[in-house]
Structures are given as C-alpha cells and as structure tokens.
Design goal:
Blueprint (H helix, E strand, L loop, with lengths): L2 H16 L15 H16 L1 H9 L11 H16 L5 H15 L4 H14 L10 E2 L8 E3 L5 E3 L9 H9 L3 H11 L1 H10 L6 E4 L12 E3 L5 E4 L3 H10 L4 E2 L2 H7 L10 E3 L6 H9 L5 E4 L3 H12 L5 E4 L1 H5 L6 E7 L20 H21 E11 L8 H11 L2 E8 L16 E7 L14
Parallel strand pairs: 8-9, 8-11, 9-10, 11-12
Antiparallel strand pairs: 1-3, 2-3, 4-6, 4-7, 5-6, 12-14, 13-14
Helix pairs in contact: 1-2, 1-4, 1-5, 2-4, 3-4, 4-5, 4-6, 5-6, 7-8, 7-9, 8-9
Length: 458
C-alpha cells in the first residue's frame, strides 16, 4: 500500500489515542517518495482540521459511539473520509481500498466497519453526471453543505448536520460547539459563525515589510491591504531565499503587528520582550526603537537559540535571556515590557490546526492563571510611567479584556487603549484580505509626578 497514506493513518490513530491533546510534532514521513509527501501532509492536515466534521458524518452511520471506537479505527475513518470529502483528485475507490487495506493490518476485526462507514460517506456526496462532486458556489450553513477551503461548499444528498444554527456551523467547520457558542455570547452569532468558517483553510504567508529598505518584488509577492504588509505565494524554499535577501523583512500577520503600534515613544531604559518566541515582535521593537536596549526572553531552548542568532546581528542592541535572569536585575527599571503571552490561539485557528480541539472552559482557566503569573513578573519590571503591552492571538474575553481589567484592579495600572481584531478574509477570498484575530492592550504604571489618564478604547 502507499507508505504515505499508511503513515497518515498510523499518526491519526496515535492522535485519536490522546485526543484532544494532539501532538505538535510534524508528521514523520521516512521512506516516503518526495512526490507522495505533499499529498500525505495535505491529508493529515485536512483530517485534523475537519476531525469534528468527519465525526459528525460518521456518527450518522455508526451503531456505537464514536468515542468508543479503537484509535486505529478512528484514524482510518479520519484519513479515509478526509480524502473522500476534500480531495477530488483521489479516486474514491483508491481512498477506500487503501484505507481498508491498512485497517486489516491495524485493526483486522474492524475492516468491515471502516469499509461500510466510508462507503456511506462517499454515497452522501452528490455528484455531477461527470462524476465530479457537486458544489454550491458559497457556503450558506445549510444542513446538507460542507464548506470547502476554496470558498465553495460540498453538496450532500441528505441533511446530516445539526438543526440548530451554531451547532451546524461548529460541525461544518470542525470547531467544538462550546467554542462557537462562547464566541456567540460575546461577539454575536454572525461573527461566531464567520470565525468558525474562517478556520477551515490555511492562512496565507504574510510578510511585514514596514522596516524594509527595499520591499520584495516579483511574481511571488502581492500587496496586502494592510499598510506595510505583503503576501508571499511561493514555495518554502523560495520564501527562505527571499528572507535571506531581505533581512529586514519577516513573516508576521498584520494583526500581530498592530499590537506593537499601540506603544508610545520609549525612554532610555530597557525594553523587555518577555515571551519573545522566535522574535517576531522583537524585530518590530528593534525597528521601532532604534536607540533602545532590548532584552528578548524565552524559556524554550530552541527558540532562545533563534533569539541569540538575531542578537548576533543587532550590533549589540539586543540580548537574549531566560526570564528568571532579568526579573531581579531589571526590577522597576524598564520603559516598556511586551508580554505576548501563551494563549488559546482562538484567533488563529486557521494556522494552529491542533488548537481548536483543546477549546474548553478548563483550558481557559489554566491559561488565564498562567497569564496572570507572567504578568505579575512583567509589572514588577516597569519603572514609574513605564508601559506594559499585553497581547494575545485569542478572541476570548477571559484572556483579553478581563485580564486588562485585572491588571488595573490588582496592580494599579492605567489602561491607555486596547483593541480586539476579528479574523477577516478567509476561504475563497483574496489572500490580500486575510488577517488573523487577536487582542492587544497598552497599560501604564502611574508615575507619582505625572498621573496617567485613561484614553478611549479603539
């Protein structure tokens, strides 16, 4: 059988065994021909992204609860159904035969069940006389439509999706129902449905060119509607080549970049990027404050290595440190602290495929406790009058506005301004319109000499 598909089924079976805490490691494809690797990665991505959609369609034809199936059976159903629903160029018989063949070795007694359920799912798909799947030009959140990443919708021969609007959107887009209902509670139903639909396709590669001496040019780059940003449409190898030629350009969505724009002028004291990751916002800070000393902090050794490489080319302006190393040394001395904290990623589910499966009240409670712990350290670093930039790639008020309110109430900071940016663009829309969702707030530690008043919210 095809080794690429076999690797996908095996990995999906492993993921089913630990669901919803999916692994972050890339799909391992040793021994798979290069021509087959792209298809294997695409099947795996579709199965993770539309896991909940596939589960909904499979449940219609199962006699036992999905949750009671063996992990190998779940992996086979996910991989096989993903091909039937989302890959027109894979012949249905090939997807069925390969999946059943793998199941015979991984879960022999379940091969008949997998064959039967996948055949029923295949039969659900309405087809043109040519055999091509029938599509609606756009998704309307109907019970017999499955939205597709290119903006159209797959037509089903039966109303298999839930009756209630939010439950239907959640199942169709592959988002937990709790998450969609939570969005509806604070964003409204229309924006909740849009956020779910926005997540079904991978986001484009957006470049920050605000600091570029010469913006990239050529057929692989397009102008983005956000000023100072472009969209890259080429291969990974071409992207790496472009970034090597333009060291003052980096990959960053416009929503992420908008957070740093909230900062006001900085004084001579240090600027701390407290959760720097691989240095995206660190690059912005270097460009925005050319005379400032910047310290980028990270607890992950591989990411800290990336920051050290960035520091090596900064002419001494940037240091890369573990957070504990600076909490005591720079206490009450910093002009700016940037805290782009770990969060639910609910504003970037198009990019963070695995994050959708972890959405729950329990996860939010865990994350907000972690965020408050990080921010307590961040506040201790601020000098009087210093600025704290708090940001997330979340849409959740518990991680956003409520954390800002906590900083005001518990730590005496003043809220200068904040913004919540909703996801935009999405399936079938031009990549120049795409943006992630996210939140940012600028808070100020009051100065005894010059109290800071609270400005309006943007």
């Amino acid at each position: 059988m095809n080794p690429g598909r076999a690797a996908v089924y095996a990995r999906l079976a492993a993921e089913a065994g630990r669901y919803p805490d999916l692994a972050l490691e890339p799909l391992e494809l040793r021994g798979v021909a290069e021509r087959d690797q792209a298809l294997a990665h695409a099947i795996y991505d579709a199965a993770l992204r539309r896991w909940i959609t596939i589960r909904q369609l499979a449940r219609v034809h199962l006699r036992q609860p999905w949750e009671q199936l063996e992990p190998a059976v779940v992996g086979a159903l996910l991989g096989g159904a993903a091909q039937l629903l989302f890959f027109d160029r894979v012949p249905p018989h090939a997807a069925l035969d390969e999946t059943v063949e793998w199941t015979k070795s991984a879960a022999p007694r379940a091969a008949g069940l997998v064959n039967a359920v996948l055949r029923r799912i295949s039969e659900l798909i309405e087809r043109e006389p040519t055999g091509e799947p029938r599509r609606a030009s756009a998704w309307t959140n109907s019970r017999d439509e499955v939205p597709l990443a290119e903006g159209s919708a797959l037509r089903l021969g039966a109303a298999c999706l839930p009756e209630e609007q939010l439950a239907r959107a959640a199942a169709a887009a592959g988002i937990p129902l709790w998450q969609v209902r939570h969005w509806a509670d604070h964003l409204g139903e229309d924006d909740a449905v849009h956020a779910a639909w926005h997540s079904i396709g991978a986001g484009p590669t957006v470049l920050n060119v605000q600091a570029a001496r010469e913006a990239p040019a050529g057929g692989r780059v397009l102008q983005h509607r956000a000023p100072g940003h472009m969209v890259f449409t080429g291969s990974r190898a071409e992207l790496l080549s472009l970034l090597a030629r333009h060291p003052d350009v980096w990959v960053q969505d416009s929503t992420s970049a908008a957070a740093v724009s909230l900062l006001e002028g900085s004084g001579p004291g240090p600027i701390i990027d407290l959760c720097a990751g691989r240095g995206t916002k660190t690059r912005q800070l270097l460009a925005r404050f050319p005379n400032a000393r910047i310290v980028a902090c990270e607890v992950s050794e591989p990411r800290l290595g990336d920051l050290r490489s960035l520091a090596a080319g900064s002419a001494g302006r940037l240091e890369a440190r573990y957070p504990p190393e600076i909490l005591g040394a720079l206490r009450s001395r910093c002009d700016v602290v940037v805290a782009d904290v770990p969060c639910s990623n609910s504003g970037v589910l198009a990019r963070r495929v695995e994050a959708r499966h972890r959405c729950s009240p329990r996860q939010l409670a865990r994350l907000t406790a972690q965020q408050k712990e990080i921010l307590a350290g961040a506040v201790s670093l601020l000098r009087p009058g210093g600025q704290l930039l708090y940001s997330t790639c979340s849409l959740e008020p518990e991680e956003n506005q409520q954390i800002a309110a906590w900083l005001v109430a518990a730590h005496g900071l003043s809220l200068a301004r904040e913004h919540l940016i909703l996801p935009d663009g999405g399936p079938g829309r031009p990549p120049s319109e795409y943006r992630d969702g996210g939140y940012a707030a600028l808070l100020v530690r009051p100065s005894a000499q010059s109290p800071v008043s609270v400005a309006g919210i943007h």
